[in-house]
Amino acid sequence: MNLNKFKFYFINFILIFIFSTSVSAKKVPDSFADLAEKLMPSVVNISTTQTIKGTVNPFPFQFPPGSPFEDLFKDFNSQTERQVSSLGSGFIIDAKGIVITNNHVIQNAEEIIVKVNGKKEFKAKVLGSDPLSDVAVLEIISDDTFIPVKFGDSDKARIGDWVIAIGNPFGFGGTVTSGIISARNREIGLSRYEDYIQTDASINQGNSGGPLFNLNGEVIGINTAILGQSGSIGIGFAIPSNSASLVVNQLLKYGETKRGWLGVRIQEVTKEIAEVEQLDSPKGALVASVGDNSPADKAGIKPGDIILEFDGKDVDRMRTLPKIVALTEVGKKVIVKIWRNKKIISKKVLLGRLESSKEFASLKKSEAPTEIETLKITVRLLSEEDINKRQLPADTTGVVIINIASDSPVNNYMQVNDVIIEVQKTKINNLKQLNNLVTESINKGENTLLFAIYNNQNQRRYLGVKLK
After folding, report:
1. Separation between Cα atoms, residue 13 and residue 159, nearest integer Å
2. Full set of structural domains in the chain with CATH
3. Between vectors from CA 57 to CA 55 and to CA 60, what angle results, nearest 5°?
């Protein structure tokens, strides 16, 4: 090969390399202005109000429990009511005014006001909500035509992709923040079906229910949670659009969800269990118990079985199974591969409906987050799944903190995912009890509460918290 031919081939090689590199690499956006301008009219600010009732003791003292004077003077206690407001975000998916947001944004709301594009306000009603996925569907009460956005394919979203979040943080409507997808498939102990997109786009209180967009202007997530007390630390979480859109479609069609139901209680397969069962690695979901007359029971699945595959999908760990089952069509016949007696066997299961099962009522109640207004925290009931995952004592009861307001009195004492197990030396069994104990203590004039908690390291601690 002569020198001229070598130069020719070398120059062509360099040009081809440069061209292919420029085509495959995604350009860093110079500005998000055009995209933000296009999307802002579809993002709404949501404000809700509800009435909180309480009792105030007019006396500067409190009779001890069981005292005969307690009943005598209880009629002097005055009933109080106060209006409590909260803020959130949402986005329009239909020109008729269908709005998507988080369930916890509108939960227990007596009135919902939606502000569109930071200007016009409308009343809205709830078409359907689902506490288990924390998704709600609203309808704006108006004959106006609105500008909708579309759900994108969240499965195509990759770590490192650019995203923008638009919402109503701290009541400052129409706020745009940008960042990248930091991680996928995150689980933070907030709900039963977790598969969050993690982003470093700034998300604060009030962003809940707002959209996370890709650069095509498609909604790939619903901003739902922040890590820590105040947000803006580069860690926010969004419900993937693919799982959210399934819930939305069901709520629009039926007014409720229709999830697949297998009817088993499961626990994690540890290294020790895998070793005893002669599994090559800790994987799958160990069946702890099987519900009577459940689909699993009828199919012959037994306690001690390890579910490795469901309807052709690998069950790599315990928490994968509930998500796969829930997204499977009710009434479908599926093949479940299980590990029993050190070998794989298959069972054919006719899938039931979770919402028609006996356990759904307690499940829904236990997983519906509740705001404790006096403490300015949001909590949910501690589940058996939490106890197994965190390896807490089997008889542990309490509530899990899922959000702490920046002005909460427990700030600097507790963190998200801490478990409150006692207040004033009284064991916590349910959400209502916690709220009542705190309210009663405040009405008695007690300015310091004694909490017993399990912190994020699962260490049991007592904390004295001043309320004022």
Report:
1. 31
2. 29-257 (2.40.10.120), 263-350 (2.30.42.10), 369-466 (2.30.42.10)
3. 160
How far apart CA 153 and CA 197 sit, in angstroms, is 13
d(CA 426, CA 420): 11
Write down the pLDDT at residue 435. 85
Query: pLDDT band for position 22 (50/70/90)?
Result: very low
Catalytic residue among 42, 129, 133, 134: 134
- Residue 364 half-sphere exposure, CB side, CA atoms within 13 Å? 15
For 360, half-sphere exposure in the C-beta direction (CA atoms, 13 angstrom radius) is 19
Cβ–Cβ < 8 Å for 347, 311: no
DSSP state letter for 41: G
Q: Give the SS3 label for residue 353.
A: strand
Q: Is 44 helix (H, G, I), strand (E, B) or coil?
A: strand
Q: Based on the residue annotation, tell me whether 178 is a catalytic residue of this protein.
A: no
Instruction: Tell me, yes or no, if 195 is annotated catalytic.
Output: no
> What does the pLDDT average to over 214-241?
83
Catalytic residue at 208?
Answer: yes
Furthest-apart CA atoms within the chain: distance in Å: 112
- Among the listed residues 47, 208, 243, 294, the single catalytic one is 208
Contact 367, 192 (CB under 8 A): yes
Cα angle value 356/261/277 (rounded, 5°): 145
CA distance 363 to 153: 29
3-class secondary-structure state, position 171: helix
Q: Which is catalytic among the residues 104, 182, 241, 243? A: 104
Cβ contacts of 218-221, under 8 Å, gap ≥ 24: 218/149, 218/150, 218/151, 218/152, 218/153, 219/91, 219/93, 219/149, 219/150, 219/151, 219/152, 220/151, 220/152, 220/153, 220/154, 220/157, 220/163, 221/154, 221/157, 221/163, 221/197
* pTM, 2 dp: 0.70
pLDDT tens for each residue of 28-73: 678 899 999 999 999 999 998 876 555 555 555 554 544 555 555 5
